Automatic annotation (TrEMBL):
One of its GO terms (molecular function) is threonine deaminase activity. Belongs to the serine/threonine dehydratase family. This is L-serine ammonia-lyase. InterPro entries: Ser/Thr_Dehydratase, Ser/Thr_deHydtase_PyrdxlP-BS, TrpB-like_PALP, TrpB-like_PALP_sf. Pathway: Carbohydrate biosynthesis; gluconeogenesis. GO terms for cellular component: cytoplasm. Coiled coil: none annotated. The lineage of its organism: Eukaryota, Fungi, Dikarya, Ascomycota, Pezizomycotina. It catalyses: L-serine = pyruvate + NH4(+). It is found in: Cytoplasm. It comes from Glarea lozoyensis (strain ATCC 20868 / MF5171).
Amino acid sequence: MGSITPKPAPPTPQPWVETPLYRSSILSRFAGCNIYLKLETLQPSGSFKSRGIGNLMSRAISKYPPNTPVRFYCSSGGNAGLACATAALSLSQSCTIVVPFTTSAFMIEKLKSLGAEVVQVGEHWAAADQHLREQLLGKDKTGVYVPPFDHPDLWEGHASIVDEMERQMGKRGGYDAVVCSVGGGGLFAGIMEGLERYGRLEGERKMSVLAVETEGARSLALSVEKGVLSRLGAITTIANSLGATQVAPRAFEYTKRYPENVASVVLSDAEAAIGSVCFADDERVIVEAACGVSIATAYNGTIRNIVGGGCSDEEFVRKNVVIVVCGGSNISLDVLEKYKETYGKDEKVVKGFGKRLSL
């Protein structure tokens, strides 16, 4: 009998999907140029984090012999934890998500429904992360740490957004700017990595990148202002998914490498909240305030001021701007209604959103 050639191990499944990109007629009307939406809210976990965390976890599995069980450890009760649990389920692996006691029961139930082991420790993320590293990960020889935003594999995964945008926007004449929210800076670093790879940050048609934060989580803006990587004393924002007191060093490095391309934008909690409310009304898509802050730039004139600076209305109307709708799962219709009640009559917001809130 001849020898039997063993079948190769099946390829590791990709724990994220290509997302649609389309032109929003209503946001384009308010912004004054062509606004395209990259719908990362349609990722399996509900946010862009499926890309970076999914990429990191897939790469980690590939380093072990086939069929080796791997347990992933992530200290996050937010979108990173959901992305880890969702990817672990699709990769047929186990995971432990360590969350602080401040994590809502709503999010904990979501994590458990995905099969994750959930451990509650400490009053904040740092305490949960310390427990994970010292008490859990150190005792598991095949355990893999899943960081929320500061790792090359994460940035590589997020850069796949640009790969898709290049194909999708190529059919529409290219694009002039990208708008993305910044928390720990993982998404921003990935976007910059992708744009750099395609040469979009140099040449005649240099790309503008609007890196958007809320006032209470302006860690990137603080670093840009001081010219050195800096840390916030505290996070004071409703957009808690942006709650990193210091951005990843790689994110700050990109602002120094491409100062003419990157615009650090800081908006209020009210603008972020009403951005989410208006987006739900106009596009029938619900997103966290951490995403709404980027959406708000189309409503309140920010894109016109930055991308259209120095050009006429006739020139600006031809600009193509992509907003990365990063998503987020810690949102509901009840929360949106509370945002509307709390911030809908804020005089600065009403003035900034102008035509939109006068409808």
